Amino acid sequence: MKIKQLSIFLENKKGRLWKALDTLAIGNINIRALSIADTSDFGILRIIVQDPEIAKKLLEEKDFIVKVIDVVGVELEDTPGGLSGVLKVLNDNNINLEYIYAFTHEKTEKAILLLQAEDLDLLIRTLKDNNLTIVPPKEVYNL
Q1: DSSP conformation class of 95
Q2: CA–CA gap between residue 118 and residue 96 (Å, rounded)
Q3: Helix (H, G, I), strand (E, B) or coil at 132
Q4: For the whole model, what pTM was predicted?
Q5: Where in the chain is the domain with CATH 3.30.70.260?
Q6: Which CATH superfamily is domain 71-136 in?
Q7: At the fourth CATH level, which superfamily is domain 2-70?
Q8: What are residue 42's DSSP bridge partners?
Q9: Phi and psi (nearest 5°) for 44?
Q10: What's the pLDDT tens digit per position in 8-56?
């Protein structure tokens, strides 16, 4: 149920984001989802790719600092209120999220929300108990 996400530390200087993404392109690694958070000094690039271990190796060979972190994917309606409904369930169950990001895909009216929380097992149980559709890792990697 857990999806492997790469978190890549990027110095906040010209060309660093391009270099990371170009490294993946040269290695024939396709990005399924991407999020970036930054400060004035550095950024964290979070990506989902079809083969996280190979992508990690390629990036580390180019001197990037990379961590593999588990996240959970949940399918939601790609309509007004779809995200709010999922977040209400988590709020009602006292689940505190560290971060989220979402993307749409070929399924009509559906999106995938990627969630990171301190206790992923509790997050998964809560999603299941509330009949929310957890997206298997293979489905995300192979989109």
Answers
A1: P
A2: 8
A3: coil
A4: 0.88
A5: 71-136
A6: ACT domain (3.30.70.260)
A7: VC0802-like (3.30.2130.10)
A8: 11
A9: -120, 115
A10: 999 888 899 999 999 999 999 999 999 998 877 889 999 999 999 999 9
Q: Specify whether the CB–CB gap between 86 and 104 falls below 8 A.
A: no
Q: What is the 3-state secondary structure (H, E, C) of 107-129?
A: CCCEEEEEEEECCHHHHHHHHHH
**Token representation of residue 50:** 């079809």
Phi, psi of 65 (to 5 degrees): -90, 120
Tokens in use for 74?
């949940």
Pairing mode, strands 31-38 and 42-49:
antiparallel
φ and ψ at residue 88, rounded to 5 degrees: -65, -45
User: What single-letter amino acid sits at 59?
Assistant: L
What DSSP letter does each residue of 25-58 carry, written as one string? HHTTPPEEEEEEEE-SSEEEEEEEES-HHHHHHH
Question: Hunting for tokens 């309606």 — which residue is that?
Answer: 77
Q: Which helix (H) or strand (E) holds 5?
A: strand 2-11
Residue 80 and residue 35: Cα distance in Å, rounded?
21
